[in-house]
Design brief:
Length: about 270
């Protein structure tokens, strides 16, 4: 089979540049296009030069439709509004769409699910093997330790430029805990505590967000009982692991029927 042509959207971003390097390092895929937002200063630049791997002959453009027409898939770590727009274009072009963007609203998620009727979409708040395995462990722990005895708190830290909170990964781990407890996360989560909050509500899932420096992504799920604490953690040192996961997802999605999939499907973690 010929190489899978991938377009990187948000090509000048932190993840975009990391994705370009990951595509270059992976057998079976090639960089078919690179797209940035209208007015971005990097338009017209060579995508390889921008990513620090030398000239690749792929120019950064602001025309996703033209780029998608000549590709088999798109890898997208941009913004919620952009990912919703790209999901529509990928569905029109009938190509796979790998979405790592976080911070999507319920309405954004609905639009992406609608596009997945025509396109194969893999969407995950975290594309790393380690975090997806951690989510499985969190679900098991939450199921085994009952809400009356163990309180669940999700703690995350990211670099100072991250724009959404809690992180997509923290929400994903919260969802895993809620699934284990057979409750709805949206009805049981506590996102912020400030002032006279009163005691902790039994069965709630709390979130705490730290921001600073260059931290790529630290997550801990704490199950706090009386006299003991279980802490399940993951520390990401390098964005390359998310990019590697996204490229693995693209190769996996190449021959799959349209639908909305997660990294758990890609990694066979059920
Ligand atoms: P970034 O700001 O460095 O990069 C985003 C890029 O997208 C920018 O270059 C921006 O110009 C571009 N962009 C925005 N709108 C666009 C449009 N309409 N068309 C084309 N390009 C557009 O951010 P980042 O750190 O690379 O993160 C991007 C997203 O990926 C965030 O939502 C982040 O939380 C998420 N993320 C997910 C994972 C994961 O594993 N799922 C890992 C890391 C980051």
């Amino acid at each position: 089979m010929s190489e899978m042509g991938l377009v990187v959207v948000g090509a000048a971003g932190r993840m975009g540049q990391t994705l370009i390097r990951a595509i270059l390092a992976t057998e079976g895929v090639r960089l078919a296009g690179a797209v940035e937002r209208r007015g971005a200063p990097q338009l017209g630049a060579d995508a390889g030069e921008l990513a620090g791997v030398g000239k690749l002959g792929v120019t950064i453009s602001d025309d996703p439709l033209a780029a998608f027409a000549n590709a088999d898939g798109v890898v997208d770590f941009t913004s919620p509004a952009a990912s919703v727009e790209f999901a529509g274009y990928a569905a029109q072009a009938r190509i796979a769409h790998i979405i790592g963007t976080t911070g999507c609203s319920v309405q954004d998620e609905e639009k992406i699910a609608a596009a997945a009727r025509h396109a194969t979409i893999v969407k995950s708040g975290n594309m790393s093997l380690g975090v997806n395995l951690l989510a499985v462990l969190v679900e098991q722990a939450a199921r085994a330790l009952n809400a009356g005895d163990f309180d669940i708190e999700v703690l995350e830290m990211h670099h100072r430029n991250k724009v959404d909170a809690p992180s997509g990964t923290a929400l994903m781990l919260g969802e895993a805990a809620a699934t284990g407890r057979e409750i709805s996360l949206s009805e049981n989560s506590v996102r912020v505590r400030d002032g006279h909050t009163g005691p902790r509500e039994t069965g709630s899932i709390g979130f705490a967000t730290l921001r600073g420096g260059s931290v790529v992504g630290d997550h801990s799920v704490i199950l706090a009982g009386s006299g003991e604490r279980i802490v399940l953690s993951h520390h990401a040192d390098d964005r390359a692991l998310f990019a590697k996961g996204a490229v693995t997802a693209a190769l996996w999605a190449h021959d799959k029927k349209p639908g909305l999939y997660s990294m758990r499907d890609v990694l066979g973690l059920g």
